[in-house]
Specification:
The chain is an all-alpha fold. Helix content is 64%, strand content 3%. A two-stranded antiparallel sheet has the order 1-2. It has a two-stranded antiparallel ribbon with strand order 3-4. It has a two-stranded antiparallel ribbon with strand order 5-6.
């Protein structure tokens, strides 16, 4: 449908959508121009359509205080900072809603710690929750020039340092307990520890190097025999904790001495074996498939590696569980969005061009054209165009059907109809012919008989035309155009130039009007067909040159 705009089956991100008049030609409402400009901006930004609409949907849930709630009652710190994280991954830094969400989180800090689930009575300060927000704030601070959030970052770092448990040459954190309450480092948690370590690595302060090394030793010693990590010493390896540890250890490498760096490298190699052994389809939740994708991306450092694409494909195959406003905001929509956002940011190539050459289902879903309009897109369920695009994409025959649609709505057909109108103008002006169609001196029985005769004749033509159609779109399009031109002729030129027709149109009797409309439509459509077969239109339009 937009091939004339972009020149290929996949929109070229370097070409602007600047042919607004084509919409009318293709039967698309002119109001759709705004939506198509939005799509155009997404293509140029190389961002998958699902993520942009997802972010817009998530931010639309923002409350007056800047927070986002999962249950609609309690402001949720996790959902709020993950919404900000998704925005940053898509390059949205200055949106007022994003800044408002950040301000809410900053106001929620208590002694440098962020409460979970939110700033409500009884909420506890969590190491993991604080560390996650610190990751995001550190990145946002760099985008803002490196000085806007320094005071808050230092306060959160101080909170993390106040909660760390140190024993000998190892260090770790618990979720929400102080070192005095933890008692022994054996009670510390892998998840909170890896998240806090990642924060310290992002900050990269020299005074934290010794602590970073102690934490790495503890994490390496917590690795299970299968190469994964669990949250506690007595647990079993899981993808979630393994991802957090892998990310933290990977970012710690610049701060390690040679011996510890070798230990970390060995641990990461074993974790790769663990992650490679997992079939994405064996993971039953959106969160786990997202973590598997993110883990493989970190270890393999190639977003187009078969193992990474396999995990991403497993996530998009599960899109019915996260690609809908009915999904769980925190555990499904935001988790999946952040995973895909990180993957997109790691790409060095234009994803739309990659998708054009690839048969990977995840790439086709995220970057193919016709694009699947997301359920988050306003009015997606009401719009015929959106449903059509979704159907074309799901069937896998999108481009072929779109090309047929384009071929069906061409200047050739419109030109043939106009030429037919000019060539058959004598029919329209013939007084006897018009009287025969209107039947001015008639009985009701003759009137009904004449109407049925015209209906049968018109239906016979449609059956014959359908039997020899080039495609279904062409059949409907040319028929509609013939009726539309006949309508314009009757209610325009002939209404003001022919007294019989004017009287028939204003009499309130529908049967003569129906006969006139169907008869003129039949003449125009048959004339268009004869002109196309004889190639008169090509000769006239090309100035005497035939193809």
């Amino acid at each position: 449908m937009l091939s004339d705009v972009y020149g290929s089956e996949v929109p070229d991100p370097t070409v602007r959508l600047d042919k607004r008049d084509l919409l009318v030609r293709y039967g698309i409402p002119i109001e759709a121009w705004i939506d198509l400009r939005v799509l155009d901006r997404w293509f140029i930004s190389r961002i998958p359509i699902p993520l942009v609409s997802m972010l817009s949907y998530v931010l639309s849930l923002q409350r007056e205080d800047g927070s986002i709630s999962v249950d609609g009652i309690i402001p949720n710190s996790g959902a709020t900072y993950r919404a900000v994280e998704l925005a940053l991954l898509l390059g949205v830094y200055d949106d007022t809603r994003v800044i408002k969400a950040v301000d809410f989180l900053l106001k929620s800090l208590r002694d440098g710690g962020l409460p979970s689930p939110g700033p409500v009575e009884g909420a506890v300060l969590e190491v993991g929750t604080t560390a996650r927000f610190l990751h995001i704030l550190t990145r946002l601070n760099k985008e803002k020039g490196g000085s806007v959030y320094v005071r808050h970052i230092e306060g959160m770092r101080a909170f993390l340092l106040s909660r760390v448990c140190v024993e000998g040459d190892e260090a770790a954190w618990h979720t929400d307990l102080t070192p005095e309450e933890v008692g022994t480092i054996r009670s510390c948690i892998t998840g909170a520890t890896s998240l806090a370590l990642y924060s310290l690595c992002l900050l990269g302060k020299k005074e934290d190097v010794d602590l970073i090394r102690k934490v790495c030793r503890w994490l390496v010693n917590q690795q299970k025999e299968d190469g994964g990590w669990s949250d506690s010493q007595d647990g079993f390896s899981n993808v979630d904790n393994t991802f957090n540890v892998v990310r933290a250890l990977k970012h710690s490498e610049p701060f390690l001495d040679r011996h510890l760096k070798d230990q970390v490298a060995s641990a990461l190699a074993r974790s790769r074996e663990f992650l490679s052994s997992i079939n994405p389809r064996d993971l039953r939740t959106v969160s786990l498939r997202s973590m598997l994708t993110r883990s493989r991306l970190i270890l393999l450092e190639d977003p187009l590696h078969p193992e990474v694409l396999g995990a991403l494909e497993g996530l998009t195959d599960m899109k019915d569980m996260w690609y809908t406003p009915k999904a769980h905001l925190y555990n499904e929509i935001l988790i999946a969005g952040i995973c895909i956002g990180e993957w997109v940011n790691s790409l060095k190539e234009d994803p739309y061009r990659v998708a054009k050459k690839s048969k990977n289902r995840s790439l086709v879903f995220l970057f193919s054209f016709p694009a699947e309009i997301p359920p988050f897109f306003p009015g997606h369920r009401e719009g015929v165009g959106e449903r059509l695009l979704n159907f074309l994409t799901r069937t896998g025959h999108g481009q072929g059907l779109v090309e047929k649609l384009i071929e069906s709505i061409t200047l050739r057909d419109i030109g043939s109809l106009l030429i037919s109108t000019v060539l058959l103008v004598g029919v329209f002006l013939n007084e006897d012919f018009i009287k025969a169609v209107i039947l001015p001196e008639r009985t009701r029985a003759v009137d009904l008989y004449a109407t049925l005769f015209v209906l049968v004749l018109f239906s016979f033509w449609l059956v014959l035309k359908f039997r020899f159609r080039s495609n279904l779109c062409h059949f409907f399009t040319t028929t509609t155009l013939s009726v539309a031109i006949s309508f314009l002729i009757l209610w325009g030129w002939l209404r003001f130039s022919n007294d019989l027709i004017a009287e028939a149109l204003t009499s309130g009797d529908l049967m003569p009007v129906l006969r006139l409309l169907l008869t003129f439509s039949l003449i125009l459509d048959i004339g268009r067909r004869l002109i196309n077969v004889s190639e008169i239109d090509r000769i006239l339009i090309s100035g005497g040159r035939t193809r």
